[in-house]
Amino acid sequence: MRLAEVAEKLGVAEWRLKGALERQSIQLVKNFQPSYLVFKKDVSGIERGTAVFLGEELSVVRGFPKIKRAFYLEPLLKKHFSSRVAVEEKMNGYNVRVALVEGRLLALTRGGYVCPYTTAKLRESRNTERFLKEHPSLMLCGEAVGEKNPYVVHHYPEAGDFGFFIFDLRERESNESMPVLERNALVEEYELRHVRLFGIFDKGDATREIFRIVQELAAEGREGVVIKDPEMKLPPIKYTSSQTNASDLAYAFRFPYEYGREFFFSRIIREGFQAVEWDESEAELEKRALRLGKSILLPMVESIKKVRQGEILTEDYELDFASEAELEEFLAYLRRQGVSVIVEEMQHRDGGVRVILKRLRSSSTDKIRSVLNGRGE
To answer: What structural domains does the chain harbor?
Structure first.
């Protein structure tokens, strides 16, 4: 497995990597060429999601660091940032890192696995590949969004069926990040897209500006913002709207037994802090409470009724593939990830394949059915 070589490359003691492998904090992915190690947890300062490809030469793609979330914004901004802050849009999709490994463009999920669907979509962009070939030490970090992706479906007019919006450029091996304005200029040079930059503000004025921006985004059905040090020397902070919290809860309560309690609890707590910081009136609090309550109760009731009627809870995706072979590769990938899906419908179009995939939410289906059949809690 060349563990000593990997340890030297990462600057980590070999015995720590060996222990992490034994604990399954690191996984060896064998059914890929080249095989690669995935860090499923942080190990000695190496981030979760890091992938080390075991080719002729080792190729490291570091994991994307976790971003802290602001519950109560103003004091955190004052404490965390030194002077100015850059405010960018946080889009509702899935985090992807794109890098060149042995001359091939690969797209990695947040967890560190090579996603064949995302990789195929991004290989369609000649500019993306050209960027990586001319800057092989960098990785593109961005949000994959749109209505035809297998993870998070959300409508963005500018994205079409599938869009990729860059929010960071990082050195693959050191994870050092490029300053915001320098990054955007370089991305634009290759005619690639990046997330919206709303502006760079003095720290003292930023809270008011961020509240205004987030409220405008919420009215458009968009998610929120990421607040950054323009030089990227400090970790970013994310801040989202009440509507986003409600949307997250509504999604999760469709499948209430699939998510941990921390997922639900943290989003509900955010609502309380934001309502206080925004100094909401009784009428505004009523609206927030109604939105929150509906997001929890209504999707759960709908799911319980479906199971009572004998249905199985599923999450449906419409996806386009260049060929049936590409579809089969993606289905095999999902099975390896422990995801159960069925192909509901398949149509051959323009030399490609369009399918509707149903992801089975068996845990919620089974537990709801069990309660309906008389099991107590």
So the answer is: 3-61 (3.10.450.740), 68-236 (3.30.470.30), 242-308 (1.20.58.2250), 314-360 (3.30.70)
Residue 333: both structure tokens together? 């990938």
Residue count of the chain: 377
Tokens of 260: 């941990």
- Among residues 63, 77, 71, the alpha carbon closest in space to that of 227 is found at 77
Q: Sort strands 197-202 and 163-171 into parallel, antiparallel or unpaired.
A: unpaired
For the record, the structure tokens of 12 come out as 């980590």
Share of the chain residues as helix, strand and coil, in percent rounded to the nearest 5: 40, 30, 35
Q: Distance of alpha carbon 80 from its chain centroid, rounded?
A: 24
pLDDT one digit per residue (tens) for the chain, 377 residues:
689 999 999 999 999 999 999 999 999 999 999 999 999 999 999 999 999 999 999 999 999 999 999 999 999 999 999 999 999 999 999 999 999 999 999 999 999 999 999 999 999 999 999 999 999 999 999 999 999 889 998 889 999 899 999 999 999 999 999 999 999 999 999 999 999 999 999 998 999 999 999 999 999 999 999 999 999 999 999 999 999 999 999 999 999 999 888 899 999 999 999 999 999 999 999 999 999 999 999 999 999 999 999 999 999 999 999 999 999 999 999 999 999 999 988 888 778 899 999 999 999 999 999 999 987 66
Single out the residue of 74, 85, 89, 69 nearest to residue 224, CA to CA.
Answer: 89
